[in-house]
Design goal:
single chain, about 550 residues, alpha+beta, Beta-Lactamase, Alpha-Beta Plaits, six-stranded antiparallel beta sheet, 18 strands, elongated
């Protein structure tokens, strides 16, 4: 007798236990969830703030670089740089500059020529009639360093923060090199108003719980939101470094390690680096690179700044997470107890149908699944197994071959088919009786099974004393070797057969055929060829095999 209901009982008990445990764990976890979830969300917000600030400045610089690149690569501009005193070329070049200047952040452009070191200036609404140099560049003048630094730079452009000596205010300077045949012939320069850029970046950080800083790759501080509104913010020329500004060694180390990892210009965006601080006014430090520069933005933030109106979210998230965990664990339990065994049963049934397994999964179980598995196994055996020899029957062979030949036709695989008869088996039955005839059939069937070594090979009792062997993916030479081995294994049984004209013991005759399968063929064509070869073996004295190439 098979026991009933074991799976359903275990399923109910485990579901109730998991549900009770989930509520107990929820009550315990809620005491600790608030701080953990708050910290996680705050870290994500810190990363977003830093990323958005870096992206805002990168957007400005990217736009300016694009405009400067258009001007620097203009054929009219290059022609004028190569022939400075040609008035027609000058006018055409300044027409290009006029189109660019109107789109620049500062609406003006400084132009320096390598050949004469003359400096020009292009502005919005400038008349093109009498354009003259405004200065002569000198490598000994600090105010002209922008030109010579850019000429000597390995990059096409340089970005820096410096004082506009005419306005006595800081600017973000962009210098773009003009090149002819790989040789620098001049520089274009424009400036982004520092106060406007800083206001866009740091106006959101005017709070005691958040601070924004921009540094270069050496750790020099260019912008600091804590100085907004002071005279030093726009007019300072002295250099302050992170080592001067921070006393916390952990903060300095984190910044220095970050700068080492991303040294140099970055022309692709990357994810912000977030460090949790364990002491001081701030809880998080986030660093993000600014594209097209060697600068980075640092955002220092406290938890209350990042997480204010969402105090009730952690409780909701905790409950939801626990319910999800409960659902997942419950689903896993259901799968392992019910669905996984059923899947294994399904898989083993497919393997059994493909003659790659001897028994179904679950036949050893004492529950509903075991009952089902044993019932299916019994029905399968009755439908597909020859009860006397234990070999597959003709019905199984015909149902399996459609699938096998379909696979072989797609891969252009070889198929070898054998038909064999026990020589003079009617005489054997007449001489020794049907009981010994049945034993003889079983012995020959065992020899056939022992000869087969691959799971995809099929040995079939075709009817009476006639057997069939199906060898997928076996070429002619392999089939011949198999036939020789099969003849030997039957001979080695050494079953006496005094009425056998071919030998004093039981022997078999074989017909073998091999072909390359295509979709137009079917099994009966191979069986017909194999049967013709078997007939030739019998005509030639039996106890042998005859091979014929497949001929549809």
């Amino acid at each position: 007798m098979f026991s009933r209901g074991k799976i359903s009982v275990r399923f109910r008990r485990i579901s109730i236990s998991l549900f009770t445990a989930a509520f107990i764990i929820t009550a315990a976890v809620m005491f600790f969830a608030f701080e953990a979830v708050t910290t996680q969300i705050s870290a994500e917000y810190a990363g977003r703030y830093a990323g958005s600030s870096a992206e805002a400045m990168s957007t400005h610089i990217t736009k300016e670089i694009g405009l400067m690149s258009i001007a620097a690569n203009s054929a009219d501009v290059i022609d004028w740089f190569m022939d400075e005193f040609n008035e027609d070329k000058k006018v055409r070049a300044f027409e290009v500059f006029s189109g660019i200047v109107s789109q620049l952040y500062s609406y003006n452009l400084y132009i320096g020529l390598e050949s004469s070191l003359n400096e020009y200036r292009a502005e919005t609404g400038q008349a093109s009639g009498n354009i003259q140099p405004v200065a002569v560049l000198s490598p000994y003048e600090p105010v002209d360093a922008w030109f010579f630094n850019c000429i000597e730079s390995e990059m096409n452009y340089t970005v820096s923060i410096d004082i506009d000596h005419m306005m006595q205010r800081k600017r973000v300077w962009l210098d773009y090199k003009v090149v002819k045949d790989g040789v620098p012939i001049g520089v274009l320069c424009t400036g982004l108003e520092f106060s406007h850029i800083a206001g866009e970046l740091f106006s959101q950080y005017e709070t005691n719980n958040m601070r924004g800083i921009i540094i270069n790759r050496f750790g020099d501080i260019y912008m600091d939101s804590s100085l907004m509104g002071s005279s030093d913010y726009l007019h300072s020329e002295y250099i302050v470094t992170i080592r001067d500004e921070f006393s916390d060694r952990a903060v300095i180390n984190a910044i220095e390690e970050y700068l080492v990892e991303i040294s140099g210009h970055r022309n692709q965006a990357s994810s912000p680096s977030i460090t949790r601080l364990t002491s001081g006014q701030y809880r998080f430090m986030t660093l993000a690179p600014i594209m097209h520069t060697d600068w980075s933005i640092i955002i220092l933030s406290g938890t209350t700044t990042l997480f204010d109106t969402m105090y009730f979210v952690p409780i909701m998230i905790t409950i939801l997470a626990l319910l999800i965990v409960f659902a997942v664990v419950n689903s896993i339990a259901n799968f392992r107890m019910l669905f996984q065994p059923l899947r294994k049963l399904e898989d083993s049934l497919a393997q059994l149908n493909e003659h790659s397994a001897d028994a179904l999964f679950g036949t050893e179980r004492d529950d509903e699944l075991g009952h089902l598995s044993n019932t299916i196994q019994d029905l399968f055996n009755k439908a597909n197994i020859d009860p006397l020899t234990g070999l597959y029957n003709r019905r199984f062979m015909e149902s399996s071959m459609e699938r096998i030949m379909g696979l072989l036709s797609r891969s252009k695989g070889h198929l070898s088919v054998m038909m064999l008869d026990i020589d003079f088996f009617k005489r054997y039955n007449d001489t020794y009786g049907h009981d010994r005839g049945d034993k003889c059939l079983k012995s020959v069937a065992g020899a056939l099974s022992n000869t087969v070594s691959r799971v995809n090979d099929i040995v079939v009792r075709y009817g009476g004393e006639e057997f069939t062997v199906i060898l997928p993916n076996t070429e002619s030479e392999g089939a011949k070797v198999f036939a020789e081995k099969l003849l030997k294994n039957v001979r080695d049984l050494n079953i006496p057969h005094e009425k056998n004209d071919a030998a004093p013991h039981v022997t078999v005759s074989l017909g073998v055929t091999t072909g390359i399968v295509d979709f137009k063929q079917d099994l009966h064509m191979y069986l017909k060829n194999a049967d013709e070869a078997l007939y030739m073996s019998k005509e030639n004295g039996r106890n042998r095999y005859t091979y014929l190439d497949f001929n549809p």
